[in-house]
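Posting this for the archive.
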Amino acid sequence: MIRPGMLLQGQYKIIRQIGGGGFGKVFEVDDNGTIKVLKILSLERFHNPTIKLKAIALFQREAELLARLKHPGIPRVEPNSSFTWSDSNGEALHCIVMEKIPGSNLQQWLQARGNQPLTTEQAREWLIQLVEILHELHQHQYLHRDIKLSNIMLKPDGQLVLIDFGAVREVTTTYLEKQQGKQTGTVLVSPGFTPPEQAEGYAVPQSDFFALGRTFICLLTGKSPLDFPKNSETGELIWRDDLTNVSPELADLIDRLIAPFSGQRPQNCQEILNYLKGNQQNSQLSKYRKDTIPGTGLGATYLALKRLLQNTFTLQSKSDERVADKQKTTQNKLSKKRSFQLLLAALLVLSGGGINLWKFSPDIAFNLNNWGVAKYRQKSFEVAKIYYQLALFFDPKIPEADYNLGLLYEEENKFDQARAAYKISVQKGYDRAYNNLARLQILNKEYITAVGLLQEGLPFAYDKKAKYTMLKNLGWAYLELGNYQEAKNYLEKAIHIKSDRASAYCLQAKVLEKQQNKQGAFFAWRNCLKYGNTAGTPEEKQWVNEAAKNIN
């Protein structure tokens, strides 16, 4: 019986139990000042000697694999960290001590945000991380065989970690010969995530892709794969109707990952990475990319929609050029209204042509928002604004369009309108909007409000860029409040995440000056100047100028 306070192997002091069920229990232990995790295999539920030996073999295989692999997305196990310990009843307990992964698993993370789905950008970044982890695993000839939300940890720095390698299987020559001979292996099933061939005992590398795809269906819809119906003829999962903010290209990739037959899925990790990173010419997946959805004409819809929009703006631009200078102010206001009316008329033309636009409204909104971003980068702000408004017309739930409107209003120095747009995006849970709204609050000297907003948004920061900016802005707000120690703590965390950004160093220099740490302030100012970006925010430009004066 393992209890808190016990010392195992003269080294691992039991702190508390943090998990259990299945094949054993999980404890938090102190290894000479370092907190780690102790997994213990319990054999009391196994009565068949053969099955008991199989469970021990699987457990030992996990320890051997983790001790061999060195990857930030895989829990670290030091050599000789597995052992057998006998309790007071003489029962042999098989143990593994491994790195403790901070953070929460994706099942907990998704529940904490009310099952709000990921955006395309979030999903693509996480998918790349997980495929790279699988690439490391598959390179060593191992299959994970149990990928699901609860077996993926999200660390505070944004790194995903694949855990629970108890079901891992080595792909040896003997194993492959058994597959060809139809001799089944150990069957491990997680309902909704396990592919058909694995359920029958014939797991292959593409089996991990199936489970990964099903995991992302949860993340992109907020629902379990078991909640969706299947096509009775093909066995394909009918899940895309529940998508709200996902690019068709990413949805197509997920469909490839969860294809009913392993031969229909991508054949290796590099194929998937090439597709995700845009190297489609070098990827066999490119031949599977769908420009239309069969039976819908959606690809043609996009082309027709974009041409109508572009033609409308072109005609309107030519009309504006004929307006006399003295009439331009009034005419421009009318032209914006007329543009919007013409665009809606164009959309009605498409609908009247037999295309049910509303069926694809989330996809259309996604594309309209992206077209708006392209126009924004070209400094065509009025055209970008109409694209964003149309995106919200088709899908009022899309948070990126509100966020992008906020950016546009900031560019035009319409800060009240920018705040309003960011607030709406925050209400929809968009992490970057927390940053931008908090920044405006800090500039408006609403420091306490900014701190509350940033602390509320920090758990939703899914990538390093968003987390860095939130931590930096928290440091900035605490600096203005005169709480220098809190400011220093948050700025150090930001720098730990992104050590090549200027703003956190600039603010850190100001904090250290307030704390009379002249030497530390000098080095911080130096880094502020080193990483300064002339295209940054107005305050960053100001701080970099201050750095130049303090260094010289």
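The longest helix spans residues 328-352. Confidence is low (pLDDT under 50) at residues 171-187, 279-302, 315-335, 348-355.
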